[in-house]
Amino acid sequence: MGNYKKIDKDDILYIKNTIQDDERVLVGENINEEYSHDELSGTSSYPDVVVKAKSAEEIAAIMKYAYENTIPVTPRGAGTGLVGSSVPMEHGIMIDTTLMNQILELDEENLTVTVEPGVLLMELSAYVEDHDFFYPPDPGEKSATIGGNISTNAGGMRAVKYGVTRDYVMGLEVVLPDGTITQFGGKVVKNSSGYDLKDLIIGSEGTLGFITKAILKLLPLPKRVISLLIPFPTLKQAIDTVPVIIKSKTIPTAIEFMQREVIEDAEEYLGKAFPDKQSDAYLLLKFDGNSTQEIEEAYDKVAKLCLEQGALDVLISDTQEREESIWKARGAFLEAIKGSTTYMDEVDMVVPRSRVNEMVTYLHDLHNEIDIRIKSFGHAGDGNLHAYILKDDLSDEEWEKRMSAAMEKIYQKAHELEGQVSGEHGIGYAKKPYLRESLPEKNLDLMNGIKKVFDPKNILNPHKVAQR
């Protein structure tokens, strides 16, 4: 990979002189254990030093020094990733951006907001909504940073109507591996000026450049939001209804599917009852618009369609309280599943919308075939499914065997259904083998070639994404 320099006291001294605040430079036992892993913690490795940066200039100075001395550098936001993207596999320097958390400008004329990478998604959403604007990307983890969202091209529940993070990034300030600060994109709505380097950075998981600022596109805030919770007799009927909804050309903001067993986990985790328990399978639909009448016309058509497809009922969540109880439960699914087992690993494959039912049915059958608990839920409207493989009381050896077998089969099935390895969590370190199996060799060569152009010394987040 690279003959990296092992960090010594001179390097630490240089970093401390650059930062000029010892509290923002962590070494040895002052490095919190959390810096060695991300949310899933299956991939673990400690950095030699953690720098809590406050500016692009600080990051540029450290990157330049690291480049000249061939020291690996790992960018890190809130550490909420699920594939080991922010784990420092070669130790070295970790740059934590959580202190770079300023919202720098709201430009109402150009409908943009400019932020630093450490701003949390929930802070950004609340801020722009206070000013009657709307930032549509809505990944489940609201305490993730915007820099992390951009680095993985996070999607979320509203992607079915509004698209993903990539669709809202207009410009980026980036520190390149050699310490150069540059800009890609800007406030212009159209741009055909050469290769789109901005789009290369989005989804590159911190391997090509270090994001230090982002200009994001905003929309006017929809005035009303109403959700429908629709119980079905079987999961198959629920999932089969999704293509019918999509075809009706009345696109909800979100189309989620969920099952009773995951809802029960969430109830236990939150200590609150879910509004409905009559069925094994549900679709959860969200509609937004500028008037109640506009939304009612949209959801009325979809509600009728669902009842024609065999839905048992259509529950309208038209109060703030009901809305919150349903979406709070949906937001807690991941933590709730995690709390119901000793350890878990996840798969976030994506398949064409029309093949969701085949994938969900396959996951159910696999649960019995491999004799391992698999829980799933997901964004039925955009084909991005989340499957969680649970360890429970399996021995480490048995877990490794069954989990690997399950993953292999799930990714193989997604590939057969013309899907991809990741819809929104990225590849990081943990999912590299599956990416290699799913893409042509030439595509991987192109990715590694791009990495080499940006980072010839391979110091920025090595061992991630397509690297062999």
Automatic annotation (TrEMBL):
This is 2-hydroxy-acid oxidase. Its cofactor is FAD. GO terms for molecular function: FAD binding; oxidoreductase activity. It comes from the Bacteria. It comes from Clostridium fessum. SUPFAM superfamilies: FAD-binding/transporter-associated domain-like, FAD-linked oxidases, C-terminal domain. It holds the Pfam family FAD-oxidase_C. Residues 43-221 form the FAD-binding PCMH-type domain. Gene3D superfamilies: 3.30.465.10, 3.30.70.2190, 3.30.70.2740, Uridine Diphospho-n-acetylenolpyruvylglucosamine Reductase, domain 2 (3.30.43.10), Vanillyl-alcohol Oxidase, Chain A, domain 4 (1.10.45.10). Keywords: FAD, Flavoprotein, Oxidoreductase. InterPro entries: FAD-bd_oxidored_4_C, FAD-bd_PCMH, FAD-bd_PCMH-like_sf, FAD-bd_PCMH_sub1, FAD-bd_PCMH_sub2, FAD-linked_Oxase-like_C, FAD-linked_OxidoTrans_Type4, Oxid_FAD_bind_N.
